[in-house]
């Protein structure tokens, strides 16, 4: 149950399995509570999803499930339970890691590989730790993270081999990474477009939303050279495939759908309401780009039915990780706005403002 819910794309979960999890969660089974919390955290498919996730994780944590500590930590990190609280998140992660929780180790290794969430980037250290972990157990996520570490070290061939092994062990998210390292050089330049398309097709067939998105964007590149009838088909195909990708959990697809409707691209009429719909869906899937696009629409005069204001949008986007919106939040705070969030803004967002040479 735990491995399935932590590492499987929960957008692909079938209705019967979800109902079974819900029944078991109502009976108080810690693993089922964690699974249901993860489903709502990942899909955000219900207006109350984050509340449900928090409650489920809290109950699972009370039963001693270490994975629930990690899940709550991710929510505290992103301000999904009120203000951002990285100190509490780090305590929960460290506790779970010290007690051998693989999920916690995965999160902390990811931070080390990419320098995320205040961690110091240490690719060599992460690689060494992964080698030690793999010597103990051939755990699927260790293969994927080793691929990530090798890619960060610009060892594309080595990264590809690790991604292949991760996919063989069920980590479908590695498909888009594999497509990249098989087709780009260390400088990020495309060197084999056919390989890129081939690996994206493979990932799309395996229901990876990122691969579906990237493949759709590749196909629409023919639009300008196409005739009238083919253009119509390409436009329809783009929308269908991007919507499919969103259904698979890809927030990038939501961003591109929003851009298509916002700017009237590929022969599709401009429609601000549809653009807003997709940007908001992308924010629910934690897309920084969608938060920034929604913010731009609000500041340019768009009035959404949900009455979301630009300052609240910026705050949520900053919590999601947008540097640009963190700066906007700091500016709003200096203008006397968002005073009720003073402690959070001064601790997390004012430093970002200062780091970007906007000295107060």
Write the layout of secondary structure elements.
Elements: H1 2-7, H2 15-26, H3 30-43, H4 49-62, H5 66-77, H6 86-98, H7 102-114, H8 123-136, H9 140-152, H10 156-168, H11 174-181, H12 193-205, H13 209-219, H14 228-247, H15 251-263, H16 272-284, H17 288-299, H18 310-320, H19 323-334, H20 342-355
Q: Which percent band covers the strand fraction?
A: under 5%
The number of helices is 20
Q: Gyration radius, to the nearest Å?
A: 21 Å
Unreliable parts = none
Major beta-sheet overview: none
Name the helix and strand elements from N-terminus to C-terminus, one letter apiece: HHHHHHHHHHHHHHHHHHHH
The count of strands amounts to 0
Helix/sheet category: mainly alpha
Mean pLDDT across the residues is 95
Shape: globular
Percent of residues in helices: 55-70%
- How far apart the termini lie comes to 50 Å
Describe the protein:
The chain is built from 20 helices and no strands. It is mainly α and 360 residues long. The chain has helices at 2-7, 15-26, 30-43, 49-62, 66-77, 86-98, 102-114, 123-136, 140-152, 156-168, 174-181, 193-205, 209-219, 228-247, 251-263, 272-284, 288-299, 310-320, 323-334, 342-355.
């Amino acid at each position: 149950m735990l491995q399935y819910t932590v590492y499987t794309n929960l957008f692909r979960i079938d209705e019967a399995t979800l109902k079974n999890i819900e029944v078991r969660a109502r009976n108080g089974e810690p693993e089922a509570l964690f699974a249901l919390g993860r489903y709502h955290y990942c899909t955000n498919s219900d207006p109350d999803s984050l509340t449900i996730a928090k409650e489920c994780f809290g109950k699972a944590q009370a039963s001693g499930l270490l994975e629930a500590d990690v899940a709550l930590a991710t929510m505290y990190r992103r301000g999904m339970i009120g203000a951002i609280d990285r100190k509490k998140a780090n305590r929960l992660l460290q506790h779970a890691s010290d007690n051998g929780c693989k999920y916690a180790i995965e999160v902390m290794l990811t931070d080390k590989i990419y320098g995320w969430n205040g961690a110091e980037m240490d690719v060599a250290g992460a690689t060494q730790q992964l080698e030690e972990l793999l010597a103990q157990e051939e755990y699927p996520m260790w293969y994927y993270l080793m691929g990530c570490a090798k890619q960060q070290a610009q060892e594309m061939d080595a990264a590809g081999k690790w991604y292949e092994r991760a996919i063989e062990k069920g980590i479908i998210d590695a498909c888009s990474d594999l497509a990249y390292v098989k087709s780009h050089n260390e400088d990020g330049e495309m060197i084999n477009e056919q390989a890129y398309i081939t690996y994206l097709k493979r990932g799309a067939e395996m229901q990876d939303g990122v691969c579906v998105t990237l493949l759709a964007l590749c196909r629409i590149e023919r639009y300008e050279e196409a005739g009238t009838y083919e253009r119509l088909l390409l436009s329809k195909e783009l929308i269908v495939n991007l919507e499919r990708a969103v259904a698979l959990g890809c927030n990038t697809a939501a961003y591109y759908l929003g851009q298509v409707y916002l700017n009237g691209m590929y022969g599709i009429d401009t429609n601000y309401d549809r653009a807003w719909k997709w940007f908001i869906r992308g924010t629910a899937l934690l897309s920084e780009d969608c938060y920034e696009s929604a913010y731009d629409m609000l500041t340019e005069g768009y009035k959404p039915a949900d009455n979301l204001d630009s300052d609240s949008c910026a705050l949520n986007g900053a919590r999601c990780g947008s540097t640009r919106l963190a700066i906007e939040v700091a500016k709003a705070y200096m203008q006397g706005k968002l005073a009720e969030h003073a402690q959070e803004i001064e601790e997390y967002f004012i430093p970002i403002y200062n780091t970007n040479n906007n000295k107060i």
